[in-house]
Amino acid sequence: MFVIQPREDDPMVSDVQNDHESHVDSPVASAPLVSNQDKAEKIVRSHALWAAGMGLIPLPVVDVAGVAGIQYTMIGELAKVYDLPFSRERIRAVAASVLGGGIPAVMTTGGLGSIAKSVPFIGTLLGAAVMPALSAAATIALGRVFTQHFEAGGTLLDFEPEKMRAYFVQEFEKARADTSTLLSNAGDAMRGRKKDVVVAEPVAEVPAGTPVAPVM
Fold first, then answer.
1. Which of 11, 20, 47, 74 yields a CA-CA distance of 20 to 30 A from 187?
2. Cα 165 to Cα 170: distance, rounded to the nearest angstrom
3. What is the pLDDT of residues 22-77, one digit of tens each?
4. Distance CA 30, CA 117 (A)
5. CA–CA separation, 78 and 74 (whole Å)
6. Three-state SS annotation for 17-67
7. pLDDT digits 0-9 by tens, 93-145
């Protein structure tokens, strides 16, 4: 029995081999990679919204504690993005140092907004008007401070609050201008979701004895 072996210089064989190699070697299309900085910014903005919502709590002091808890959680999430070890105690220490020493006047304003809620009615309205925006802006600024530090290769262990306070103030001023847009967009999104909800119309009851038309 004779077996005919194709010649290597046969153009037909060459085309088949090239086609096979192109299918094997061609990379599978993959989703675009998201940078750590983009992930971090998404975490910062989402926690800023949570902080703003916490600022609406009508109880004084409780709102401040709630915002602080959200900020600590945010820093922990940022550390996870950069695969860095962290502890709740270390996060609390460095965050308090940045916030307390960075811009005392702003934090005092936030504290006054919280204390004002203890005044019946008017104080609640005043505090609700001040706290959400300040809470969101401070959270954004704090998150970006740690994002920059982690992007530069730093960790929570070598974080020096004194060197980052000026950058915190700078980012806080930027965040104050962006906060209104952030909160407005969030409100528009919530209203849009409500409009998308379809409410079923009640079915009219048919009186007993009403003749029903036959289905053709």
1. 74
2. 9
3. 444 444 455 568 899 999 999 999 999 998 888 776 666 666 788 889 999 999 99
4. 52
5. 6
6. HHHHHHHHHCCCCCCCCCCHHHHHHHHHHHHHHHHHHHCCCCCCCHHHHHH
7. 999 888 876 554 444 444 444 444 444 443 444 444 567 888 899 899 999 99
